[in-house]
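Handout, page 2. Input:
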Amino acid sequence: MNNMIIYEDKSKINLTHQNKKISILNIKEFKENLEKIEADYIKNKKFIDIDNYICLYNFIFINNLSNFIKDLAIKEKTKQILFSKSLRTKGKETIKLNKNISIEDIIGNIILCLLKSEEYLKEKISIDYVDKFKEGESESQINICDIMQYIPANIDKLIKKLKVDLIAFNYVKKDDKKENFVLPIYIDEETLLEKGIDYSKFLPNWTSVSYLKMLIKIHDFFVDYYELETKKGLVYDDLMLALIYLMEYEVKDYPKGLQKSIEVGRATKGKCYFIDGIVNPVAIDQKLAITLQGKDLFKKVIKLV
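Output:
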């Protein structure tokens, strides 16, 4: 049968599929990596407390690992994802993410993520438990860095299309592409001062909201262009995640003359943003908030399973 088996082997989590064994996690290496993450937190003085910082890192890792397993199962047309029967009780109602996370916790988290996934609910994958199984013969390993960098298949497909189409529709220029495309934000200091607005203390929040408002316009354009069956607006979907992955924002020098007229026109389509008054907040759901926080702290864009 074309099944995939996931099981604990001492200090490792292994995946066996088509007579191949993949070590998808070495708990010792994972713990060592958490120590490095904690040291990075202390060195760089992040804006959230250490426990939440570690939990977010673990949350990204667990979701990425679950997406990797799910995508591999779908790609290989796997009928079932099987776990050793001894792991049946490992699945929990809530995900455990603290720095003392154990290999049992991680497996339980994976099971829970898969059980809550859209693919499981739509019966594209199924999950069961077995008493006995045969391990794969050829062995390979996927490292923690690869999992942290993992991009789910559906989002990766959109990213590749958007890299071409964002340039084709003049949302960005080809030479704007470094690691990410950059959306410019312009601060109209003269108008803000005339309105008596002391904008300096509000600027970090206003630029973040301006970025989201640009993403909404770009998202909605491509919903129509790609004829996607998804809602418009600031929604949590694959297209929005792909845009967040690809696009950053940056405050640029205020344009003058003809260049300003051009940029004002571009702003109507979300290609840039002018701050010339109070920038009203936008409603954002929890999943999107977690995704944006993960990008801010770890430069990772996650798809929550």
